[in-house]
């Protein structure tokens, strides 16, 4: 029976490459456009989750961008611990990342914003809580009016910020058509080295 999951064809199924190398291989050299679940910790110590776009995956971190005025940003500033979940259903893959965030350097933000589709750039400028409270027709008119008033290239709004998720644990789950699923888990130890082990799926 042919395997649905191509994991074994793009890297050795029994190999344990460096975790960020494997993450970049799964996501692609740039993770731009990949949807992931971001779980933060709220003021009561409870989890809070939402989906965000993965902007980039570097050799050290998973990068995403958001509005500095948002609830998630307030939670990240109060407690930097996060979990990420990425899933590729057709490839029978899942990646769970636990780590902590650090603000993305300012000199990396303008280029990242420039790569966004225009629609997302416009949203970054106009879509706030005040707009959300207005009737749907008013929201559409406000969005269209802003777009018409700014036909050219948009600069980054000052509240558009980025976060680097520096992983401390990465768990790569792979399914297999007709065989047992399994997990390859990496845990960061001192002084900065990774240990790897395989777990049941």
Automatic annotation (TrEMBL):
Domain Pyridoxine 5'-phosphate oxidase dimerisation C-terminal: 160-200
SUPFAM superfamilies, sorted: FMN-binding split barrel
An example Gene Ontology biological process: pyridoxine biosynthetic process
Keyword Transmembrane helix annotated: no
Domain Pyridoxamine 5'-phosphate oxidase N-terminal: 34-144
Record key words, sorted: Flavoprotein, FMN, Oxidoreductase
Cofactor needs: FMN
Transmembrane segments: none
Record has Transit peptide as a keyword: no
GO molecular function: FMN binding; pyridoxamine phosphate oxidase activity
Family: Belongs to the pyridoxamine 5'-phosphate oxidase family.
Protein's UniProt name: Pyridoxine 5'-phosphate oxidase
């Amino acid at each position: 029976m042919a395997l649905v999951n191509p994991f074994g064809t793009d890297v050795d199924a029994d190999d344990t490459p460096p975790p960020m190398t494997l993450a970049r291989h799964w996501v692609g050299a740039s993770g731009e456009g990949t949807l992931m679940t971001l779980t933060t910790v709220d003021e009561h110590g409870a989890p809070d989750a939402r989906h965000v776009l993965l902007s980039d995956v570097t050799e050290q971190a998973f990068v995403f961008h958001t509005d500095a005025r948002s609830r998630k940003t307030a939670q990240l500033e109060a407690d930097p611990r996060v979990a990420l979940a990425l899933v590729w259903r057709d490839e029978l893959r899942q990646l769970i990342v636990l780590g902590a965030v650090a603000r993305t350097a300012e000199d990396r933000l303008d280029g990242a914003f420039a790569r966004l589709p225009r629609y997302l750039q416009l949203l970054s400028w106009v879509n706030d809580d005040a707009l959300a409270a207005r009737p749907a027709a008013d929201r559409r008119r406000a969005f269209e009016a802003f777009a018409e008033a700014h036909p050219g290239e948009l600069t980054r709004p000052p509240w558009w910020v980025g976060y680097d998720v520096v992983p401390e644990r990465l768990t790569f789950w792979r399914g297999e058509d007709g065989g047992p699923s399994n997990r390859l888990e990496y845990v960061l130890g001192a002084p900065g080295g990774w240990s790897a082990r395989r777990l049941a799926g």
